[in-house]
C-alpha cells in the first residue's frame, strides 16, 4: 500500500515541478520574441529553463547520496521523451484547424489552413528541416562526448572535470543555436505578476524535484530495484507525463516545430548541465552494460528523429509510420533492458 501512495506522491510532484518550469519559461517566451529567435533557436533557449526540473532532480539525488536515481533519470528521460513528444504532437495536430477558437495565431511556425489540410491527408507532422542542423546534429555530438569522457576504463564514471567539459560543451551548443537562429526582434511588455509567477515557479519546481527523488527512493526500496533502474523507468516516465500535456497544448496552437523540437533542446541541457551535480560528487558506473545500452539509445533515437526529418517526404516532417517507428525503438530498448535484468535474476 505504501508503494501506491509513493507513486501518487511522485506523480503529483512531477506535475508540480512541471508547473514551476512552465511558469518560469513563460517570461522566456517574451525574450524569444524580443531577441528575434526563430522557432528552432527559441526552442533551444526555452529548453534551458523547461529542463530545470530535471536539473534539480539531479542536484537533489547528488546531495542525498542517491546519484543512481539522477543518472537513471537523465538517461531514461532522454530516451523516452523524443518518441513520446513526437507521438503526442502528431495526434494533437490531427484536427482540421489549429489555433485557439479556430483563429490563426501570428507565430512563425504556424501552418496555413490549406497547408494543414494537405498535411492531414498525407498523415504528415510537419517540422522545419533546420531543426536537424541547428539542434539534432550538435545534440548527437554531445552524446558522443559523454561516451568519450565516461566510458574509457582509465577515467570511467563521472568526475568534476567531466562536469566542466560537459558544461562548456552545452554553452557551445546553445551559442550556435542562438547565433544561427536570429531574426528581427519585437518589443515586449513585462508585468510584476509575470515576474512573481516566475519566482513562484522556481520554488515549486525545487520542491517538486526534491519530492520526486524522495518518492523514487522509497519506491525503489520497497520494490527492491536499483537506483539506476528506478531513475530510468520511474522518475523519468513520471517526469515525462507532464511535458506531454504541454507539448499537446503547444502543438494545438499551430507551433508544431516548437512543440516537437524543444525536447531536443531539453535533453541537451539534461545530458550536460544535468550531469554536472553527479560529476561534482564523483559517480562511478556500477552497471556498465546497462549504461552502455542506455547511452546508445540516447543517441540512436534522436538520430532517427533527424533522419526522418531530413530524408523524409518532400515537405520536412514525420510520416505516420515514422512516428510509430520512433515508439518502436523505445519498446526495443525496454525489451533489451528487461531481458538483461531477467537474465541476471536467473
TrEMBL record:
One BP annotation, GO: transmembrane transport
Top-level taxon of the source organism: Bacteria
One annotated Gene Ontology cellular component of this protein: membrane
Keyword Nucleotidyltransferase attributed: no
Regions that span the bilayer: 6-25, 37-57, 69-92, 131-151, 157-174, 195-213, 219-238, 259-282, 288-311, 323-345
Gene3D superfamilies: NCX, central ion-binding region
Signal peptide interval: none
Keywords for this protein: Membrane, Transmembrane, Transmembrane helix
Recorded topology in the membrane: Multi-pass membrane protein
Domain Sodium/calcium exchanger membrane region: 7-175, 195-338
Compartment(s): Membrane
A Pfam family: Na_Ca_ex
Protein name (database record): Sodium:calcium exchanger
Amino acid at each position: 500500500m505504501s508503494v501506491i501512495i509513493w507513486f501518487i506522491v511522485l506523480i503529483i510532484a512531477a506535475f508540480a515541478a512541471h508547473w514551476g518550469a512552465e511558469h518560469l519559461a513563460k517570461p522566456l517566451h517574451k525574450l524569444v520574441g524580443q531577441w528575434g529567435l526563430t522557432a528552432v533557436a527559441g526552442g533551444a533557449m526555452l529548453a534551458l529553463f523547461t529542463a530545470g526540473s530535471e536539473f534539480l532532480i539531479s542536484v537533489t539525488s547528488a546531495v542525498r547520496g542517491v546519484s543512481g536515481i539522477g543518472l537513471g533519470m537523465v538517461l531514461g528521460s532522454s530516451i523516452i521523451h523524443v518518441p513520446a513528444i513526437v507521438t503526442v504532437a502528431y495526434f494533437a495536430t490531427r484536427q482540421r484547424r489549429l489555433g485557439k477558437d479556430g483563429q490563426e495565431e501570428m507565430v512563425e511556425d504556424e501552418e496555413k489552413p490549406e497547408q494543414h489540410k494537405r498535411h492531414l491527408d498525407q498523415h504528415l507532422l510537419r517540422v522545419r528541416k533546420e531543426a536537424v542542423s541547428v539542434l539534432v546534429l550538435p545534440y548527437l555530438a554531445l552524446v558522443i562526448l559523454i561516451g568519450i569522457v565516461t566510458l574509457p576504463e582509465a577515467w570511467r564514471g563521472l568526475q568534476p572535470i567531466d562536469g566542466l567539459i560537459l558544461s562548456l560543451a552545452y554553452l557551445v551548443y546553445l551559442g550556435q543555436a542562438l547565433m544561427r537562429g536570429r531574426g528581427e526582434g519585437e518589443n515586449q511588455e513585462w508585468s510584476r505578476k509575470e515576474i512573481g509567477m516566475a519566482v513562484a515557479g522556481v520554488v515549486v519546481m525545487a520542491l517538486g524535484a526534491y519530492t520526486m527523488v524522495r518518492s523514487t527512493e522509497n519506491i525503489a526500496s520497497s520494490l527492491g530495484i536499483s537506483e539506476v533502474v528506478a531513475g530510468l523507468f520511474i522518475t523519468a516516465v513520471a517526469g515525462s507525463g507532464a511535458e506531454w500535456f504541454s507539448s499537446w497544448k503547444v502543438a494545438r496552437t499551430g507551433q508544431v516545430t516548437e512543440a516537437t523540437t524543444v525536447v531536443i533542446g531539453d535533453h541537451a541541457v539534461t545530458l550536460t548541465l544535468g550531469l554536472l551535480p553527479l560529476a561534482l560528487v564523483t559517480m562511478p558506473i556500477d552497471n556498465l552494460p546497462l549504461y552502455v545500452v542506455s547511452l546508445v539509445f540516447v543517441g540512436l533515437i534522436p538520430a532517427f528523429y533527424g533522419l526522418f526529418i531530413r530524408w523524409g517526404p518532400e515537405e520536412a516532417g514525420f510520416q505516420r509510420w515514422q512516428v510509430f517507428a520512433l515508439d518502436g525503438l523505445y519498446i526495443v530498448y525496454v525489451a533489451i533492458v528487461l531481458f538483461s535484468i531477467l537474465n541476471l535474476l536467473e
